[in-house]
Amino acid sequence: MRHLGSCILGVLAVALRQPRGAQAIPFKCALGCVNALIDFNMMAQYRSHTPDPIAYMEDYLDQFHRMNDIFWGFGVTKRTQAKVDKQPKEIGGQRSLMRQGAAPSKRRRVMTSVTLRTNCV
Question: Can you tell me the distance from the alpha carbon of 5 to that of 81, in angstroms, rounded to the nearest whole number?
């Protein structure tokens, strides 16, 4: 778990490295927010804390709270939640169709549609 934060930050940095013009500032804020949270977490794992690490932790937490509003626009909407709730039922129905011995071409179509729906939600 200790290294997970560093891995996530690396993945986000690579994923967000070439933003388009309008995306540059939000991507930079998102990376800064995640970086502050990871730094706070890393400092919190010290075995003992003196006033200096505590001051660093307070600074990291303040940075996180200043920038975390960038994520508020990406909350789950009712429409998205309805899609997520409906998805297991659809996948279960598709799997039962597959078990009934459908033709290979139909099985391929079903698997393709399940994969596309899973990746798009």
Answer: 27
Length reported for the chain: 121
Report the C-alpha gap between 119 and 33 in whole angstroms. 26
Q: Look at the alpha carbons of 17, 21, 23, 25 in this order and tell me if their dihedral is positive or negative.
A: positive
118, 87 in Cβ contact below 8 A? yes
- Do residues 91 and 118 make contact, with C-beta atoms less than 8 angstroms apart? yes
User: 68 near 33, Cβ under 8 Å?
Assistant: yes
The burial of 37, by beta-carbon neighbours within 10 Å (0-12 exposed, 13-18 middle, 19 or more buried), is given as buried
Query: Averaged over 87-113, what is the pLDDT?
Result: 66
Q: Given this model, what pLDDT does residue 18 score?
A: 77
